[in-house]
Design brief:
The complex is a heterodimer of chains A (about 110) and B (about 350).
Chain A (H helix, E strand, L loop, with lengths): L1 E6 L9 E7 L6 E2 L4 E6 L4 E5 L4 E6 L6 E3 L3 E7 L30
Antiparallel strand pairs in A: 1-8, 2-4, 2-7, 3-6, 4-5, 6-8
Chain B lengths: L18 E5 H15 L3 E5 L15 H5 L4 E3 L4 H13 L3 E5 L10 H8 L2 H4 L9 E6 L14 H5 L5 E3 L4 H11 L6 E6 L6 E5 L13 E4 L4 E5 L2 H15 L4 E5 L2 E3 L3 H11 L2 E8 L4 H13 L8 E5 L10 H4 L3 H13 L4
Parallel strand pairs in B: 2-3, 2-4, 5-7, 6-7, 10-11, 10-13, 13-14
Antiparallel strand pairs in B: 1-8, 6-12, 9-11
Classes of the chains: A mainly beta (about 110), B alpha/beta (about 350).
Protein name (chain A): Biotin attachment protein
Cofactor (chain A): (R)-lipoate
InterPro entries (chain A): 2-oxoacid_DH_E2_comp (IPR050743), Biotin_lipoyl (IPR000089), Single_hybrid_motif (IPR011053)
């Protein structure tokens, strides 16, 4: 298994921190991509952060009321080693399918 | 440039079992770790290769093991990644840059063509460029635009560069270790759709006669040679099993090195089968299949039973999503290619 850390992103233009309002996932929980992770408040607004990826939540940082700086760890996911990259999906290994049949007279063999 | 066709180098057997089942990701990760351990001048750089371990996990754990001086993240600027690599090479290092996706190589084309490929020539051999440029390449993972391109003919056209593409974990492990010890720049095109498939890696292959240079007969056959590289080798092996059901014995030639191309290996295979179909994901026009067809024609004109067939991508931008299956040569298109060379008659 591999660990992937997701730091608090810049949620606006030049914001430097955010305050945790409520965690919407718990450690040990399996989440899908875009699942709401946490509600945080910045100096501009309260926003819900969607999960950047699928995985098991290994660690979350900060309890309600805590301030987290942009770039500091927010959440760590555990993902299987063979999980695809951030872009794209793992191709399925399928039994080969065909419609074309070869029909040739080998005149020299 | 030094010749890639050379005798196998004997190496000490590593710890543990000589054969392990690894994915291509794991095989490449293992190879990089060994290169970093063996060569203190080797450095790995690129976008997200450090703390994250790469979007495909190829550099996973390397920064923790070798430190931020040897495995480091760069800004999102491919021209900078390659420019820095040129400087490192001039200073005596062996940089192993990663361009995160094939389509991101375009901003670095100036550095690749005008510096990486030429510095050794320009300096009369005083500034060699031992750069191993890793490029996750080709399509097949349902990624958006810029994430599924096949740039081998662009790279192969640049004097001074070597180009290689592994087809399975064993090839990936050994070819990367080989490339990363060369004095010349090598573009290492990793078939990203094959990253997750597992295969046996013979870690002691050097002692078992693994040849890092030239092409490789992946399957022997008598009636037709399928020439392929990267992810298309696995597909051609599938096709060869299906063709066998119809009584056609297909040879699959894994070209491996796309510059220089192993013309002798190519000719030896086609001289035997007398028919060739070249399969690649890149667009047809001015693709590497044309080079293969020319080499085969030059060397096997007298014995060829049919013109060389090309089964390739189309002359369109690489499509994302489900259209990928229509673009990448599929089993039926390759079978049609075989049928065309089988039924061709002169006159």
């Amino acid at each position: 298994m591999a660990e992937i850390s997701f730091p608090l992103p810049d949620l606006g233009e030049g914001l430097i921190e955010a305050t945790v309002l409520e965690w919407l996932v718990a450690e040990g929980e399996q989440v899908e991509r875009n699942h709401p992770l946490v509600e945080v408040e910045t100096t501009k607004s309260a926003v819900e952060l969607p999960s950047p990826q699928a995985g098991k939540v290994l660690r979350i940082f900060g309890t309600p009321g805590d301030t987290i700086k942009v770039g500091d760890p927010l959440i760590v996911f555990e993902v299987p080693d063979d999980t695809a990259g951030i872009v794209g999906t793992v191709p399925k290994e399928e039994a080969p399918k065909r419609r074309v049949r070869l029909n040739a007279v080998l005149d020299e063999d | 440039m030094s010749e890639t066709l050379e005798a196998p180098v004997m190496q000490e057997a590593g710890e543990g079992p000589a054969v392990e089942t690894l994915s291509m990701q794991q095989a490449l990760n293992r190879a990089l770790a060994e290169v970093l351990a063996e060569n203190p001048r080797a450095v790995v750089l690129g976008e997200d290769v450090g703390r994250l371990g790469g979007v495909f996990r190829i550099t996973d754990g390397l920064q923790a093991r070798f430190g931020e001086q040897r495995v480091f993240d760069t800004p999102l600027a491919e021209s900078g990644i390659l420019g820095m690599s040129v400087g490192l090479a001039m200073a005596g290092y062996h940089p192993i840059p990663e361009v995160q996706f094939d389509g991101f190589a375009y901003p670095a084309i100036n550095q690749i063509v005008c510096q990486v490929g030429r510095m050794n020539y320009r300096s009369r051999g005083t500034l060699p460029m031992p750069i191993t440029l890793r490029v996750p390449s080709f399509g097949g993972i349902r990624a958006p635009e810029h994430h599924g391109e096949s740039l081998e003919s662009l790279f192969a056209h640049v004097p001074g560069l070597k180009v290689v593409s592994p087809s399975d974990p064993n090839q990936a492990y050994h070819l990367l270790k080989h490339a990363a010890t060369r004095p010349d720049p090598v573009v290492f095109m990793e078939p990203k759709s094959r990253y997750w498939q597992k295969g046996e890696v013979d870690l002691d292959a050097a002692a078992h006669g693994f040849r890092p240079g030239g092409s490789r007969v992946a399957r022997e056959g008598r009636h037709v040679t399928l020439v392929a590289w990267g992810a298309m080798v696995a597909r051609c092996l599938q096709v060869s099993e299906l063709a066998a059901e119809d009584g056609i014995d297909v040879e699959v030639l894994d070209l491996r090195w796309l510059k220089p191309i192993d013309a002798e290996g190519l000719a030896a295979s086609v001289a035997k089968t007398r028919r060739a179909v070249v399969v690649h994901e890149a667009p047809l026009t001015a693709g590497l299949g044309a080079e293969v067809a020319a080499l085969v024609t030059e060397r096997c004109f007298g014995t060829l039973r049919a013109p060389v067939e090309r089964v390739t991508g189309f002359d369109v931008p690489y499509p994302s999503g489900d259209l990928e299956d229509e673009y990448i040569p599929n089993i039926d298109r390759i079978l049609f290619g075989i049928q065309r060379v089988l039924e061709y008659r002169r006159g």
